[in-house]
Input
Amino acid sequence: MPAFAVSTPAQTYEAIVERGVLRRLREFIPPRAGKVFAVTTEDVWQWHGDLFTEGMAGREFELLWFPGGEERKRMSSVEAMAERMVELGGDRSSVVIAFGGGIVNDLGGFLAAIFMRGVPVIQAPTTLLAQVDAAVGGKTGANLTSGKNLVGAFHQPLAVLTDPGVLATLPEREYRAGVQEVIKCGIIRSPGLFELMHTCSKHVLTRDPEVVERMIAESVRIKCAVVSADERESGLRRILNFGHTIGHALEAETGYTHFLHGEAVGIGMIAAAHLSHLAGSLGSAARDEIIEAVERYGPFPDLTGIQVESVMGRLDKDKKAVQGTVHFVLVTRIGETEVVAGIEAAAVREAIRLALR
Ligand SMILES: NC(=O)c1ccc[n+]([C@@H]2O[C@H](COP(=O)([O-])OP(=O)(O)OC[C@H]3O[C@@H](n4cnc5c(N)ncnc54)[C@H](O)[C@@H]3O)[C@@H](O)[C@H]2O)c1
Output
């Protein structure tokens, strides 16, 4: 199965997409490492703890429990885990393994980034969204009351171990939310992947192992290439935000409980497709294809009552606004994008209105 290299000034490592790779977990722990700490949630451990333990092949480790939930993706959770690491004898030789969904990958990565000024982390993502996005690329962090992911660090892992087999237990809604990030990868960089999501939706939705592995591998390949070209998001990496600017505003506007992240990105991509068309970058046929692909993997939470003006107000607060200017990723054709600043507010307003209809 494929392995993709991520090469950044800080670190070069592999993202491996392989059924059963977690059975080889111990191979990825440096031989001279000290204590190993696994950050995980109870549900993931109940389903897949045996697999993890088998992969450790007798190597001792300590569990750091995270109760789960976006509302607990906070500095206080990281601090509590760091305290626990010290109590359990953690030191500069320790290694963290983040074993769970995107929240665990973000928090576990952040914990590793700041524990004793930084220890290595291995990312072992267990949701589709985390496998194709959150676990790859070294962005780690936590939420503030004022917004999502407003504190964090770039901390590239030793390796990303993606085992598509663990997705068998993922709830349907979480799975579909993750599919939206796969569609995003197709739209921004891979007409072939977009086509697969269009023509093989039955196989995608029944989690046909061969199709699932193909879509994860292609998404991870894209993410690795983009991160290698631009680790710090000063240029190319911004394209990964397609659909996210408005998606984040929707999540914030609804208190982070109404949408799953991938669902908000789905609606954000519909808005971005409308915006690309309104800005003259995208033809109507491609716009409709994008909307159809996104909607095929719904349903989405109820959109009634979400006010266009309130979403507009949230856009300026997005941390991706640079010196007060919101940048949008527009699609010019399937597989190609451009990043544009200074789009007229009326067009943005209309795109949001159309997406919320
Ligand atoms: N760092 C990045 O580049 C990046 C990119 C995208 C998203 N993110 C972050 O990722 C987070 C969302 O991640 P998510 O969608 O994975 O949500 P999540 O981490 O909350 O996981 C969803 C739920 O599924 C459970 N779960 C995980 N794996 C499972 C499995 N195999 N079987 C059964 N249940 C399982 C989790 O415990 C949780 O209850 C957000 O906080 C977002 O900001 C980060």
Q: What stands out?
A: The first strand starts at residue 3 and ends at 7. Residues 41, 43-44, 47, 68, 70, 73, 100-104, 106, 126-127, 129-130, 133-134, 137, 139, 148-149, 166-167, 169-170, 174, 260-261 surround nicotinamide-adenine-dinucleotide (CB under 6 Å).
